[in-house]
Write a structure and sequence with these properties.
Number of helices: 7
Structural class: alpha+beta
Strand order of the largest sheet: 1-2-4-3
Mean pLDDT: 82
Number of strands: 4
Low-confidence stretches: none
Radius of gyration: 34 Å
Oligomer: single chain
Distance between the termini: 87 Å
Shape: elongated
Order of helices and strands: EEHHHEEHHHH
């Protein structure tokens, strides 16, 4: 049975998002036993640590006739799902792969737009250094200006002599 939805079913368990292999099989129109075989094949190429993180074994209850049968499945993390599906062919697998690549390219462009350009010539490097020095100088002037305004507001009527321990009326400095 094939699912015509645009995205596969995913669930959250203990804060981890996963897709169950039965749902993945249904979404891509594949038999579950073939999906399980693909998972086992793909797991062989991974370290035990990574395969254990990406593919967690589970048994789910399935109603059959007059009772319940427990079927072995895997819960696939996003990485496990992607690793599995990137090897598949077919229309939905291709759509997923194209969307994945497009989104990767979008993220790459976003990151590149956030990174300042590196000068390619000595003249560009000098100009960049001069521009940075100018910005720093402007910021320093603003800080000095703000400090002077702050000190004038907070020091008016301040008796330096008294605060420094000189006796009152000793001709101290008053701001």
């Amino acid at each position: 049975m094939t699912n015509n939805a645009l995205t596969p079913i995913v669930s959250v368990q203990d804060g981890t998002v996963f897709a169950n292999s039965k749902d993945v099989a249904n979404f891509f129109g594949k038999r579950h036993d073939n999906v399980m075989a693909d998972i086992h094949s793909r797991m062989k190429s991974l370290s035990p640590e990574i395969s254990g993180q990406w593919f967690q074994r589970e048994r789910i209850a399935v109603d059959v006739g007059f009772g319940t049968k427990y079927v072995p499945t895997y819960n696939l993390t996003r990485d496990g799902f992607t690793f599995l599906v990137m090897k598949w062919t077919g229309e939905k697998a291709t759509q997923f792969q194209v969307k994945y690549i497009q989104r990767f390219n979008e993220m790459e462009q976003e990151l590149k737009s956030q990174v300042p350009a590196v000068p390619t010539s000595f003249a560009e490097a000098l100009q960049l250094a001069a521009d940075q020095a100018n910005k720093i100088e402007q910021q320093d002037l603003k800080l000095i200006e703000q400090a002077l305004v702050f000190s004038n507001k907070n020091l008016s009527g301040y008796n330096v002599s008294t605060e420094c321990g000189f006796p009152p009326g000793g001709g101290g400095l008053v701001l």
